[in-house]
Amino acid sequence: MKHARCIFDEGEHQWFAIVRDPDKPGYIIDTNEYIIRSGAELLLCDPGGIEVFPAVFSALCQVCDPQALKAVFASHQDPDIVSSLALWLEFNPDLKCYTSRLWTSFLPHFGGCAETFKSIPDEGIEIDLGSTTLHALPAHYLHSSGNFHLYDPKAKILFSGDVGAAMLPEGQDDLFVEDFDQHIRYAEGFHKRWMGSEKAKNQWCDRVAMLDVDMLCPQHGAIYRGKDVHRFIDWFRELEVGVASN
């Protein structure tokens, strides 16, 4: 069973990380989901696949009123990101899904209708949640041709989708990166193969380096915090990506 762990708490503004399901079948990749609460409204980042919906829903109910869930944010189109959409819509048919304009005609294959989707233009948008404004930032070609990350300037948290992801071995289930040098080897192969553009990578590094970020939260693996945020950006900038191994 997954559990929701609070990673930022400033009264009416909170972030929860839903991580690590010991009951998950080994053939399914592990995923992180994040809840943002501002006042009476919730947004769920990358709600996950069909198979993890019961665990994610249960974890959300541990810390929040599920009726307050206003929207989900899908960083891109993959099944581990948002194939659970139909189940979330069954719970709340009025739920909105923010995603790249490229995917608003593909994601309805997972569920929903034209009114469900909030199309994000390539340059990004601002998303109002309660008393907070979140920023959907372009991260195109970093795993997907239409890809967005979500920045919360109040909490100084960047939800980074698959950027920063690490394929951790069994037994390494820390919520935060505790030893960057040991951790980053589990991220290297993934980033080399799944990030498709050197130009896009460098643009992302330039953009994110200018933000005030205390935590960088990927969809797989552990969370980077403090000085490890910029250590990751520097490491990523130097890494050659878009190179497939034979």
Overall strand count: 13
- Helix fraction? 10-25%
Mean pLDDT: 95
Structural class comes to: alpha/beta
What is the distance, rounded to the nearest whole angstrom, between the alpha carbons of the first and last residues?
37 Å
Strand order of the largest sheet: 1-2-3-4-5-6-7
SS element count, helices: 7
Radius of gyration: 17 Å
What is the N-to-C order of secondary-structure elements (H for helix, E for strand)? EEEEHEHHEEEEEEHHHEEH
Net shape: globular
Our estimate of the beta-strand percent is 25-35%
Largest sheet: 7 strands, mixed
- Unreliable spans are none
Short description:
This protein has 246 residues and is α/β, with parallel strands linked by helices.
Walk me through the structure.
It is globular and about 45 Å long. With 246 residues, the protein is α/β, with parallel strands linked by helices. Strand 1 and strand 2 form a beta hairpin.
Key phrases:
single chain, 246 residues, alpha/beta, seven-stranded mixed beta sheet, 7 helices, 24% helix
Task: Reconstruct the topology from this structure.
Layout: E1 3-10, E2 13-19, E3 33-38, E4 41-45, H1 53-63, E5 69-73, H2 79-82, H3 85-91, E6 96-100, E7 117-120, E8 125-129, E9 132-138, E10 148-152, E11 157-159, H4 180-183, H5 185-194, H6 198-209, E12 215-217, E13 224-225, H7 227-238
Helix pairs in contact: 6-7
